[in-house]
């Protein structure tokens, strides 16, 4: 892939609320016809606009908060507050992709019970679901999600309430993730820093394993013999 592929700043917000069965989040299903993540369930989000950069006074991380709030309103009619957002992670699209994004992923509580409104264009469906249920459905191959969504859900699954999640994530490291995509035994694998095959994009090399493997539409995470410099992207217990 040519080095000239532009990396566009973007942001995503994980909307959270307390439900009867536990911590809930809002997932949106993207139109299958879309070139990027078509048919996948995602959190609200999108690229930063010039207006977002202006609101953030030229600071990309600050602008990403305004963009996440704007996209949540445009895609599903929800109104998270930028000041309430907690940064969870930052992901850069793999170099092999034709469209690349530098994406800030936030979590935010919702203070108002707004009706979810989708446009039926880019977004074709929506649902409030407990984090635990979303992960259960993915394990059964019933919920198509990308690694950043899946890892974020696993990270939040350890919390029972919105307050616990927001307070807990304020004090955790923010992973900076640039995956390398490859094939291994006929399966798609995402390699992360610290994996023996990361620099060469060769997942067959012996040594440390820091990767996510997709089998039958279900992701599995491996973190074995990794140098402590490269922290795990999700809770391991």
UniProtKB/TrEMBL annotation:
Molecular function as annotated in GO: hydrolase activity
Annotated Nudix hydrolase domain residues: 6-151
A matching Pfam family: NUDIX
UniProt cofactor(s): Mg(2+); Mn(2+)
InterPro entries in the cross-refs: NUDIX_hydrolase-like_dom_sf, NUDIX_hydrolase_dom, NUDT19
Key words of the record: Hydrolase, Magnesium, Manganese, Metal-binding
Designated name of the protein: NUDIX hydrolase
Lineage: Bacteria, Pseudomonadati, Pseudomonadota, Gammaproteobacteria, Cellvibrionales
């Amino acid at each position: 892939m040519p080095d000239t592929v532009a990396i566009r700043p973007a942001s995503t917000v994980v909307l959270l609320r307390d439900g009867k069965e536990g911590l809930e989040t809002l997932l949106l299903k993207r139109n299958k016809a879309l070139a990027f993540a078509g048919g996948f369930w995602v959190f609200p989000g999108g690229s930063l606009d010039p207006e977002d950069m202006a609101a953030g006074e030229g600071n990309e991380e600050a602008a990403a908060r305004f963009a996440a709030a704007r996209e949540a309103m445009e895609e599903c009619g929800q109104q998270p507050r930028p000041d309430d957002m907690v940064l969870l992670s930052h992901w850069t699209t793999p170099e092999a992709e034709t469209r690349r994004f530098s994406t800030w992923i936030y979590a935010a509580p919702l203070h108002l019970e707004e009706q979810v409104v989708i446009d039926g264009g880019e977004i074709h469906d929506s649902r409030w679901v407990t984090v635990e249920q979303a992960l259960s459905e993915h394990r059964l191959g019933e919920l198509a999600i990308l690694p950043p969504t899946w890892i974020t859900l696993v990270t939040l699954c350890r919390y029972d309430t919105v307050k616990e999640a927001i307070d807990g994530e304020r004090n955790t490291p923010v992973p900076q993730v640039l995956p390398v995509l490859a094939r291994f035994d006929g399966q798609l694998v995402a390699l992360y820093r610290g994996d023996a095959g990361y620099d060469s994009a060769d997942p067959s090399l012996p040594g440390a394993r820091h990767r996510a493997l997709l089998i039958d539409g279900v992701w599995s995470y491996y973190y074995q013999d990794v140098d402590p410099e490269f922290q795990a992207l999700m809770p391991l217990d």
